[in-house]
Specification:
By secondary structure, the protein is of the alpha/beta class. It has one domain: Maf protein, CATH 3.90.950. It contains eight helices and seven strands, in the order H-E-H-E-H-E-E-H-E-E-H-H-E-H-H. Strands 1, 2, 3, 4, 5, 6 and 7 form a seven-stranded mixed beta sheet that branches. Helix 2 (18-26) links the parallel strand 1 (10-13) and strand 2 (31-33). Helix 4 (93-103) packs across helix 5 (138-148). The two termini are 17 Å apart. Pfam families: Maf.
Length: 197
Amino acid sequence: MLNEKLKHHNVILASQSPRRQAFFKALDIDFEIRLKPVKEEYPPRLTHFEITNYLAQLKALPFKEELQPNDILITSDTIVWHNNTALGKPKNADEAFAILKSLSDATHEVITSVCFTASNFEKTLYNSTKVTFKALTNREIEYYITHYKPFDKAGAYGIQDWIGQIGVTNIEGSYFNVMGLPVHLVYKTLNAIVDIN
C-alpha cells in the first residue's frame, strides 16, 4: 500500500539498529540502509525531547550534501528520561545495573525522535511512552545483564526481552516506541510526504 505510493522515492534508513530495520521491513516498504559515523553529543542545556530531536537531526547532517531529489532519509534517536535525567546506553555491566536499579519500582519515559530529511525539506517528530517497572530484585537485574547484555539499548533494557516480560507492569503509549521507533508516526508521516510531493 505505502510501497506503491513510494515507488518514485528512495527511502534511506540511517540506522544500524536491528529493531528499527525490522520495523521498516514490517511496513512492507522498499528501503536501503546507509550508515555514517556521528559523535552523539548534545548541548547540556537540552532536556527531554529536545535531546532526541537534536540527535536525530545531527545524524542526518552527514548525508545532506549527497541526497538526490527523490531520496527520503530517516534518522532516529531514543532516550530513557527518568528523574529529569537522560539515560542513554550503558558502557558496562556496572552502569547497566545502576540504571536498571534506578528504574526499578518506578515510572519513566521513553522518548524517540524521528527526522525525515529530503533535498528540499526536513521534518522532525517525537513520541513519548510511559513505562512502569515492578520492584526488580538484584538477582533479576544481574541475570538480565549477564544473559541479555543490553549495552546497545537506551536505559539498559529492551522491553521485548525477558526483563520486559517479567518486570513491566504498565505502559502508557506506543509499545513499539519503547522498542525504538514510533512506527505509526513513521507510517503517517511517509504517507503525508508522498501525498504532498
